Each structure stands twice: as C-alpha cells, then as structure tokens.
Amino acid sequence: MLHELLNALEETLFMVFSSGLLTLLLGLPLGILLAITHPNQSLANSTLANSWLHKSLSALIHVCCSIPYVILMIALIPFTKNLYSSISSSDNHCIFALIPLTLATLPLFAHLCGKAISDIPSTLTEVFISMGATPKQILFKVLLPESFANIMQNFLTTLNHLVGYSVIAGVLGCGGLGQLILEKASVFQFSGFLVIACSLIAIVLLIQRIGGYLIGVRN
Amino acid sequence: MISLENVEKIYQTQQREIHALRGVSLLVEAGEIFGIIGRLAAGKSTLLRCINLVEKPTHGKVIVDNCDLTALENKSLHIARRSMGMISQHPNLLNSRSVFNNIALPLELVGTPKIEIEQIVHPLLTFIGLAEKANAYPAELTEIQKHRVALARALVLTPKVLLCDEPTALMDSKTTHSFLQLLKEVNEHFNLTIVIFTSDMEVIKSLCHRVAVLHHGKIVEQNTVTELYANPQSQLCKDLIKTTSRLELPLTLRKRLRPHPNENSNPVVRMSFIGANAEEALIAYVIQQFNLMINIMQAHVEKIQEEHIGIMIAEITGDSHNINQALEFLAGKNLYIEVLGHATRAA
Fold first, then answer.
1. Which is nearest to B105 in space by CA: B149, B63, B67?
2. What is the DSSP string of B204-245?
3. Closest CA relative to residue B99, chosen from B129, B38, B141, B57
4. For residue B167, what is the enclosing H or E element?
5. pLDDT, tens digit, for every residue of B5-31?
6. Is B54 exposed, middle or buried (0-12, 13-18, 19+ CB in 10 A)?
7. Which residue, among A129, A131, A136, A142, would best test binding to B if mutated, counting the most B CBs under 10 Å from its CB?
8. How many Cβ atoms from other residues are within 10 Å of residue B281's Cβ?
9. Nearest 5°: phi and psi at A12?
C-alpha cells in the first residue's frame, strides 16, 4: 500500500509541477502580450497598443477559460491517443495528461498575469516615461518587478487548480493519486481512500505555505 | 531655459473637441523657481505633460535648453527627457525596490556602471536626509520620506529642469513647509530651474520667484510674486490671494458698498506697497495736504519670502476732487491703488 501510494504521489507531483512549469513558461508571455496590447496601456504613447490583437486574444482566452476540464480532457482523447501510439515505448501514462492539464490552466493564468500587469497605475509608468525610459525598460524594470508578487500568487493558485485537475486526469486513466483513489473506492477500501484524500489536501496546503513563504522572502 | 510658444492642446472625443490649452506662451529663466497656479481643470497637468512631451501639443513649440522638443523623433526625445526631472503629488516609488535602488533606477535606465551609481546616489541620500534608510523599502517609510526619495530620484540624472506637479497637494501644512524648504535648497544647491504647478497660493508665496496664472487653458497674468500680491490684475488672482491673506471687508461696510459712486458715497480703496515704504508718513501727509479723512479698515503686512508687502483697505471721506488728487499722488509714490467700491455714508 505504501509503495503504491508513494508511486502515485510521485506521478501526481510530476503532473502538477511539469504542467505548472509549462503554464508559467507559456502563460507569462501570453499575459505580457495581453497587457501591452491593451488599448489603454501606458507604455510610451501606446505604440504597442493593438486593439484588434488584444480583442481576439482575450476573446480566445475567455472561451478557453469557460470549457469545463472534464470536457477538455475527453475532447483531447483522440489527440492524446495519437501521441500515445507514436511514442508507445513509454509506459508512463501521466505524461499524456500534461497537454490537457496545461491547456486547462493556461488561459486563466495568462488572463490573470495580463491583469496583474495592467493593474499597475499608469501614473507610475508615466514617471518613468518622463525619465526617458524605453518601452522595453518599462516592461522589464517597472511592470514585471512590480507585478511579480501578484503573478507568483496567481501561479500558486494555478498549481492548486492543477492538483484538482490531475486527480480528474487520474480518474480518466492517467495515473497518479486520481487513478489510485478510483481503484480503492471501487473495492470499498475506505481507509486507503481517506489516506489519499488527506495527502491531496496536504499537497495543496504545502504548495500554498511554501510558495507564500518564498514570495514573502523576496519582498 | 524653457520657452513655450503658443502651445495649444486639443483633445478629440467622439462628440466634441476639448481645448485644454489655448495658446500658452511662457519664458522660464535658468535658475529660477517659476510657479504656475490655476484652479482644478485649468490645464495645469496638460501643460506639464506638454512640456515633457508625454502629450504632444496640437500646435506650438516647446523649447527646453535651446532644443525644440516638438521637432524631435521618439528616440532623441527619450534622451532629451533625461534633462527634465519630475515629481508629482504621489511619490510613485517602486515597492519592489529599496530606497537606494529606487533612486538608482534612472541611472540604470541609461546604463551607468554600478560604481558610479554608488557615487551619485549616496550623496543624494545624505542631501535628502535619508542616508540611514538606503536599504529600507518604501513600505517602511513615512509619506514625507517617500516624497523626499521621489525628489532624489528626479535629481539623480542631474537634470536642468525640475517639473513639480502639485507636489504638496496631499501634504499637511507642516510637511508642506519642510518639503518646500527642501525644494528651495535644491534650487540653490544645484542651481536648478524649477517649474512648480499648484493650486495653492501658499506654495507660490513661500517658494516662487515668478508666477503665471493659468485659467481655462490660458495665461491670464504673469508677474513676480511680490508684484502679483501687491497688484493683482485678474479676478481669479484676486480670489486666490484672498484665500491666503486674511483681508476681508467688515460686513457692515460690505453692506454699504456699491459699484458706482453717487453724491452720497465715499470710495473704499485697497492700497498696497512693496518693501518698507514710509506708509504712516504718507497717509498723514495726504490727510493734511488734501484735507481728507482716511478711515483704515484693515491693514496687514504680508511676508513673501524675504520681502514685505503692506496691504491696507481704507474708506476716504472728503471732497471728491481732492480724493482723486490724493489717489494720484499716492500712485505716484509707487503705491498700488485699487478702488474696491463706493460706500454710501452711514445715515
């Protein structure tokens, strides 16, 4: 039982953190793009503002945000199956959950990042424009450092969402604690069920605590 | 140092055009503290943003330090802006940076080496009296300390001009005083030209050398501060002065006051003079010479920086021909005379 649990735990953590990393790497640039194309943004006379790009991008993000995860996961089964048959040498199922997991959290994270950056008051950026800062300098010296804490907080929330989503992925057969919990429940092993549920709660709390501490240290 | 030539700014909204500035022309000399005073929505902020070209003026020229900013390309504009520091009513510090790094940021933007940054920032920190707070974060500072840091940040590129956008709007009177004192020191220490935009006459009174009055996007009056106090021309300016000096006509007199003279009224005049005129002797002389009675209602000496301005409001009784002669005589002695109205004689 313990061996089983540790194995599943490892798979779950792998799913959560890998797709979390992917979300961060893809979502942050997307969020920045969303913020700097905003029609009311204050980056140096709005040379980057592009309402057409901004509107279509944010519409796409809003649509993706509102797709329930289970449906997304099922809709992606043909695609994932294809992928599975092409690299069938791997018997690690949880790798196939990465794509739907990342797609599930990416839009929301990008949206939140964009908002965190746009929320920095334009009076602040104007001060640096009047100092002669270029748009690039304003982005990297002002906007990103100032919104860093907010973005990281959003990332923590995203990780916690991913824990929940990875369980759904597990129930659908991608391994990890989700799959294990289904196995235990189907043979009425309630003590095992309880242990798994508790460990899921522990993961969420630990991510929140450690992440919160790290953000606090930086500030 | 700064020369504005007929600057106009028109904002285009969907419904109509808004004329924020209607042809502003100004000349600010190097090394002076120039005040621009105006009520809310007079166009102060727009004017400031036009000087550093955060907003492009619709018409007109902005010339700073012999360089026509309105003709510059974006790239050279970034460089030209570095000769202008700016502070505003919010300190606008970066919360993620320490005091030292906040002040150092403009230097980082122009790529100054680290060692030089240290050499520039530390003396400035001492100048603003926050040397021991170098590693503190903005959240640990009081409001006035944040303003001092913002000021140091504005000075770090050794600008030629400092633009201040209502810097004291959110301060209480005590902190206002100490902050203005600091600005004065900056002006003397760095020989820096300061342009200060405000709606507070107190700021103009205690700091500025010259002042322009902005009203509905136009300069309605421009003078040295002492002259402005002694002899305000526009109604707006008279109102503004009223807010800082306690000169009010007594109610009984105000009730008797009429705009036009009749055979049963006496003129009420406001007399003001700059410096130490021998006021008493002049009044006594006029009384004797022209056979008048002068009833002083209010008298007040206003201290504006180093100069004194005497302001007196009096009702003059006597022969109307003699009164006119007396007023002419006083005007010839460099007194500013303004007839406020004509009081009907008490029954």
1. B149
2. HHHH-SEEEEEETTEEEEEEEHHHHHHS--SHHHHHHHHHHS
3. B141
4. none
5. 888 888 887 888 888 888 888 899 998
6. buried
7. A131
8. 9
9. -60, -45
Domain count for chain A: 1
Coil, strand or helix at A85: helix
Contacts of B188 (CB under 8 A, 6+ apart): none
Kindly report the nearest CA distance between residue B22 and chain A, in angstroms. 23
Helix (H) or strand (E) holding B42: none
DSSP for A97-135 reads GHHHHHHHHHHHHHHHHHHHHHTS-HHHHHHHHHTT--H
Rounded CA-CA distance A201/A209 in Å is 12
> At what angle are helices A2-36 and A51-65 packed, to 10 degrees?
160
Tokens 């709606």 identify what position? B199
The segments of chain B whose pLDDT lies below 50 read none
Residue B94 has its nearest CB partner, among A45, A126, A145, at A145
Q: Is B198 helix (H, G, I), strand (E, B) or coil?
A: strand
Domain ranges, residue A211:
2-218
Q: Cβ atoms within 10 A of the Cβ of B27, count?
A: 14
| Contact: A146, B96; criterion CB under 8 Å | yes
Between chain A and chain B, the number of residue pairs with CB atoms below 8 A apart is: 58
B158-186 pLDDT tens trace: 888 999 988 888 888 888 888 999 999 99
Residues 6+ apart with CB under 8 A from B236: B39, B213, B215, B220, B221
**ipTM field:** 0.74
User: Which residue in the set B84, B110, B137 is minimally distant from A130, CB to CB?
Assistant: B84
Residue A102 CA to residue A116 CA, distance in Å, equals 20
Reported pTM: 0.77
Q: Which pair of tokens denotes residue B295? A: 């009833």
Alpha carbon distance B198, B243 (integer Å): 14
Say how far apart CA A137 and CA A126 lie, in whole Å: 13
Q: What is the CATH number of the domain that holds A104?
A: 1.10.3720.10
